[in-house]
Automatic annotation (TrEMBL):
Belongs to the AAA ATPase family. RarA/MGS1/WRNIP1 subfamily. It comes from Alteromonas ponticola. PANTHER family: ATPASE WRNIP1, WERNER HELICASE-INTERACTING PROTEIN 1 FAMILY MEMBER. Keywords: ATP-binding, Nucleotide-binding. DNA-dependent ATPase that plays important roles in cellular responses to stalled DNA replication processes. Transmembrane segments: none annotated. This is Replication-associated recombination protein A. Residues 30-146 form the AAA+ ATPase domain. InterPro entries: AAA+_ATPase, AAA_assoc_2, AAA_ATPase_RarA/MGS1/WRNIP1, ATPase_AAA_core, DNA_pol3_clamp-load_cplx_C, MgsA_C, P-loop_NTPase.
Length: 422
């Protein structure tokens, strides 16, 4: 049932509707590098194929899961040869977020010089997963979960198409059965077609009933739309439960997210953010454990991996909390945004050449290791205009207590120093 023309492609009106940029590009037979970001089964691969078809380009398809740098190089060689004969090449990479940095670097120059037009598909936020250099050379289009209206159109086509669909079976679909199908597939067209085909197998007398759909789906119907508000409410409740040090609530909201079809890795990513935003140096192990849980998920798969993320969630919920780094870093960024770019003080400048030394660069720099406590008491590292600035105000919880004690001790040394620069 994969659409053969843009008219068979349902939904995604925000990018493909009449007059929208992608539709214009498609119909003009042009193509630029892009990343299609959206939930599974919303038409990323299909759209890439349509673009290739309309622009009359060769398509090289690589999977980030099975292709390495070697395959990328071979593909680029072929594209370079074809470009000599004015033959365009589209490099389609499914699950592009799984490509590591060196794999991404291998095709970057060819995207840059136009030898290939890259179309990447991903279910993950590209700003987290792609190299900055690559991101700056592609346009990101967000595909949305398909609406029930769009899916209903697809359903009708699948039921009536005698060539590629189930048309020859002359099936009818009862109203409640259709409603259940549309909910069960949660905006995913592939799932919809899969459930429909299964339900058709169960149907008696050419009628698909609600119980046929339930047999096909075989589980409780997911209650929320992954892209909708309900999902963000659940993840927000999860974040607040961990921040609020309630491990039971954290587990409950996590389980709700999974039950609704949510991605455990989304929770893992959020947990990592919590470890830095809400726990910080009060317990730096929280960040390690969150990262380990994420990694574990990739290594052992969902069944065990989901539990590893639960373990990290419980740890983070009960870990000591500090937002001191979070606040300090925000203040530093705000300061940099509003203050002028003060020059680096001479004593902190690098002086690799004798000319620079003559200019006074590096002059008077004190090598901390040569001084008591490996600390150059009275020394200054901020621009003179900012010497009084204190971004980091450690609290006394968890391991941050030790950092606070250390800072108080160093302050004392600074105050008692007879060698003050500022
Ligand atoms: N927008 C759409 N319009 C019509 N059919 C669609 C659409 N999206 C998906 N389909 C149907 O679902 C099938 C799977 O879609 P496709 O492979 O394009 O999804 P995808 O977004 O690339 O999914 P995944 O992220 O899981 O790879 C297609 O063969 C097609 O039949």
């Amino acid at each position: 049932m994969r659409p053969q023309s843009v008219d068979e492609y349902v939904g995604q009106e925000h990018i493909l509707g009449e007059g929208k940029p992608l539709r214009k590009m498609l119909l003009a037979g042009q193509c630029h590098s892009m990343v299609l970001w959206g939930p599974p089964g919303t038409g990323k691969t299909t759209l890439a194929q349509l673009i290739a078809q309309y622009s009359d380009a060769n398509v090289i398809q690589l999977s980030a899961v099975t292709s390495g740098v070697k395959e990328v190089r071979a593909a680029m060689d072929k594209a370079t040869q074809d470009a000599r004969y004015q033959q365009r090449t589209i490099l389609f990479i499914d699950e592009i977020h799984r490509f590591n940095k060196s794999q991404q670097d291998a095709f970057l120059p060819f995207v840059e010089d136009g030898t290939v037009t890259l179309i990447g598909a991903t279910t993950e936020n590209p700003s987290f997963e792609l190299n900055k250099a690559l991101l700056s050379r592609v346009r990101v289009y967000i595909l949305q979960s398909l609406s029930e209206q769009a899916l209903a159109g697809l359903l009708n086509r699948a039921l009536s198409d005698t060539e590629k669909g189930l048309g020859e079976l002359t099936l009818s679909l009862q109203e409640d059965a259709q409603a259940a199908l549309l909910v069960a597939c949660a905006g995913d067209a592939r799932r919809l077609l899969f459930y429909l085909e299964l339900a058709a197998d169960f149907a008696e007398n050419n009628v698909i009933s609600l119980s046929d759909v339930e047999s096909a789906v075989g589980q409780k119907i997911a209650a929320y739309d992954k892209q909708g508000d309900a999902f963000y409410d659940l993840i927000s409740a999860f974040h607040k439960s961990v921040r609020g040090s309630d491990p039971d609530a954290a587990l409950y909201w996590y389980a709700r997210i999974l039950n609704g079809g949510g991605d455990a890795l989304y929770v893992a990513r959020r947990l990592l953010a919590i470890a830095s935003e809400d726990i910080g140096n009060a317990d730096p192990r929280a960040m390690q454990l969150s990262l380990n849980a994420w990694d574990t998920f990739h290594r052992v798969g969902p069944a065990e991996g989901e539990r590893a993320i639960a373990q990290a969630a419980v740890y983070c919920a009960l870990a000591a909390k500090s937002n001191a780094v979070y606040k300090a870093f925000n203040e530093a960024k705000a300061m940099v945004a509003k203050a002028p770019d003060y020059p680096v003080p001479n004593h902190l400048r690098n002086a690799p050449t004798s000319l620079m030394k003559e200019q006074g660069f590096g002059k008077g720099y004190r090598y901390a290791h040569d001084e008591p406590n490996a600390f150059a008491a009275g020394e200054c590292y901020l621009p003179p205009e900012l010497v009084q600035t204190r971004f980091y105000q450690p609290n006394e919880r968890g391991l941050e207590k030790a950092l606070k004690a250390k800072r108080d001790f160093l302050d004392e040394l600074n105050r008692g120093s007879t060698n003050k620069r500022c």
